[in-house]
Structure prediction request, 328 residues.
Amino acid sequence: MHVAIVGATGAVGIEMMKTLEKRNFPVGKLTLLASARSAGKPLPFKGEMIPVQELTEKSFAGVDVALFSAGGGISKQYAPFATQAGAVVVDNSSAFRMEADVPLVVPEVNGADIKANRGIIANPNCSTAITLMALWPLHQAFGVKRIFASTYQAVSGTGAQAIKELEDQVAAIAAGQPVPRTVYPHQIAFNVLPHVDSFLESGYTKEEMKMQNEGRRIMHHPSFKASVTCVRVPVYRAHSIAVSAEFERPVSIAAAREALAAAKGLDILDEPANAKYPLPLNVAGSDNCQVGRLRLDCALDNGLAFWVVGDQLLKGAALNAVQIAELI
Ligand code: A2P
Prediction:
């Protein structure tokens, strides 16, 4: 297949290349696209160096699958040129996620949905995808009504510039220098920011509402409710989510474990007495998400509290996109 990656030089784009290689996706030709700034920059794929090309309206001739991860504006502008050229677009941005004829897919949950598409398939929000890896098997066992959740989101979710900002701030603070700041509205090193994405009139952020809006579509569960606080933390890679979920039916820890143990792409790490629970440092670079800290929620009826961690550049982005491409 002729595969194109739009945003190849970005934090997610690089992982897309690695994931295609690691999963031995049948790539006949790989076209790497980014802004004019990166044109000519060689990137490694399967032992070869492939030069990045500037993204233009004509970039998609002969392309079978185009993986987009260069932001919503670029997706809106260029995805139509890709579909007109006959490519199927897998889009990592939020540009098309709520459009009725664009499937929004986590393969482990609703892979069958990809069929009804008009040439574009959307990859979900990273925290939503990771949360659903644990919530979906629990929903099947007990029927979820609503969740309350807080996220602990890594800076790589903001992109390559944010990774550099955290590195630069840590170095500046260690050297007693003034703290440089361009990406986030406040210092992210040694701090946490209750601010991911832009604020809505309701007081929630857009990112916070993705859990409910996208969760409803992916789980085919229109009455699912989610009250979420999204927090940016000074972690390089892997998002963590603390979830309290309320279910229709009574929950037991044994039945919850059984449901989670059977889930694909998810590992249970839950030995709190031995200080064994999922950590972003350990999950970074892993395809599978991890869930732990399982306990009956003391404030909800039929409630379960848990902690789920996933590499958001992989399951929250590149891996999920390549899994969708595999389904195509
Ligand atoms: P470039 O590196 O040339 O700026 P990240 O999310 O890590 O910041 O990465 C964003 C990705 O989107 C990069 O690959 C970046 O390319 C790409 N990108 C940003 N603006 C454009 C644009 N106008 N046209 C094409 N690609 C773009």
User: Anything to note?
Assistant: The longest helix spans residues 126-142. The CA atoms of residues 216 and 223 lie 7 Å apart. The chain has a mean pLDDT of 98. The two ends are 11 Å apart (CA to CA).
